[in-house]
Amino acid sequence: MSITEEEARKVAHLARIAVKEEHLPALASELSSILQFMEQLNEVDVEGIEPMTGVTPMRLKRREDVVTDGGYQGKILANAPDAREGFFAVPKVVE
Known about the structure:
Layout: H1 5-14, H2 24-42, H3 73-78, E1 83-84, E2 87-88
């Protein structure tokens, strides 16, 4: 699949990227290369392979689920730009 200059212009417009007219052929070529590579990836047989999030085996850090003493409301609200009656105050966004 190849991308035309007009399609590259449309992609740049949708992505809100300013691309000069003289750079459109290069952008179209790069986008075409990306699509060709994706087509190559679709040819790979991945049957029976579990999805993974990384290439190195990792284990998430775990901590014990214990109840803490709490009572940090004052410290937490100390850095709030606006706090009222023990809560964060935020501007109203819905009328």
